[in-house]
């Protein structure tokens, strides 16, 4: 596969699944990153010609690299299998309420979400 093919597959998966994808394009920095928190992540880095994969590790859920693949060694089916495993792992972790609480407690509440009761909606 080429970087463009890998990037397109990561973006298509993100669009179909509602996952987070980030694309950076520029001189020698073309990068596509797909995230499945709290399970796994994928970063395709064109200048290196490689797809990096990893997990979220430790109590802070830091990104930790676990593997990398040359684009030319990837096939559509091998990349799809890696992504399918990541999605299954994400779903498995999200079904555990304690994992979900632990993962999301590190994020601050969205602006204006605290102490909003029903009286604050609908102009009442």
The helix fraction, in percent, is: 25-40%
Low-confidence runs (pLDDT<50, min 5 residues)? 115-124
Distance between the termini: 57 Å
Side-by-side strand order of the widest sheet: 1-2-3-4-5
Overall structural domain count: 1
Number of helices: 3
> Can you give the mean pLDDT?
83
Q: SSE order, as H and E?
A: HEEEEEHH
Q: Work out the strand percent.
A: 25-35%
Helix-and-strand structural type = alpha+beta
Write down the Rg.
Answer: 18 Å
Largest sheet: 5 strands, antiparallel
Global shape: globular
Number of strands: 5
Structural key phrases:
124 residues; alpha+beta; five-stranded antiparallel beta sheet; 5 strands; 34% helix; 27% strand; disordered C terminus
């Amino acid at each position: 596969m080429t970087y463009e093919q890998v990037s397109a597959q990561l973006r298509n998966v993100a669009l179909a699944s509602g996952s987070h994808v980030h694309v950076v394009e520029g001189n020698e920095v073309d990068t596509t990153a797909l995230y499945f928190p709290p399970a796994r992540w994928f970063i395709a880095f064109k200048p290196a010609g490689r797809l990096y994969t990893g997990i979220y590790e430790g109590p802070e859920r830091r990104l930790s690299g676990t593997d990398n693949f040359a684009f030319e060694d990837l096939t559509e089916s091998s990349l799809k299998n890696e992504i399918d495993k990541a999605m299954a792992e994400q779903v498995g972790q999200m079904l555990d309420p304690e994992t979900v609480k632990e993962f999301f407690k590190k994020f601050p509440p969205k602006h204006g979400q605290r102490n909003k009761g029903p009286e604050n909606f609908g102009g009442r």
